[in-house]
Design brief:
The chain is mainly alpha-helical. About 75% of the residues lie in helices and about 0% in strands. It is elongated. This is RNA polymerase sigma-70 factor, ECF subfamily. One of its GO terms (molecular function) is sigma factor activity. Belongs to the sigma-70 factor family. ECF subfamily.
């Protein structure tokens, strides 16, 4: 199993091969856990998202078409789980004196905190005013350094939408800073 590539492992997982799933998990869980923890400081939540992601892989491996990179497909599943969790936390009614679930579930990553010190106050304010959809595209293409195609896979969007949102984000930032 170790010599099989991720596509082959996914094909076997789609047929219910538990050993292939174990090999796929062992190969991909470490980097995925690290990436989830960068996006979400709550380690328990990051671990839960990791398990949900691989449960989805087990269930959906047969639907993987093989177009694009497996890591992009895997990250797109995890990113959607994280976004769904954040959205649910924001809609959930809050009780008096309860901690803000959205803040616990979604906190700045280490890179974001490091970068925040490098931004001047105006840029930081302009970035905060961007819609979450536009910020997500900037995060993927600028901070994560993904190509438009990779960002589209990760965010679960068409490439044209990623390009349009990136252009809108840059235009809004330019207007806010001028």
């Amino acid at each position: 199993m170790v010599e099989a590539d991720d596509r082959e492992l996914l094909r076997l997982v789609g047929k219910g091969d538990r050993r292939a799933f174990d090999a796929f998990y062992a190969r991909n869980a470490p980097w995925l856990a690290l990436r989830l923890r960068r996006r979400c400081r709550d380690e328990e939540l990051a671990d839960e998202l990791l398990q949900e992601t691989f449960l989805t892989v087990w269930r959906a491996a047969g639907s993987y078409r093989g177009d694009g990179e497996v890591v992009g497909w895997l990250w797109s599943i995890a990113a959607r789980r994280l976004i769904d969790t954040v959205r649910r936390a924001r809609v959930r009614p809050q009780t008096v004196d309860a901690p803000d679930d959205a803040q616990l579930a979604w906190s700045p990553s280490a890179e974001e905190e490091a970068m925040a010190g490098a931004y001047d106050a105006r840029l930081e304010q302009a970035l905060r005013r961007l819609s979450p959809e536009l910020r997500a595209v900037l995060q993927a293409t600028v901070l994560d350094g993904l190509t438009v195609r990779e960002a589209a896979l990760v965010l679960g969007l068409p490439e044209g939408t990623v390009k349009t949102r990136a252009m809108r984000a840059r235009r809004e930032l330019r207007a806010a800073l001028s």
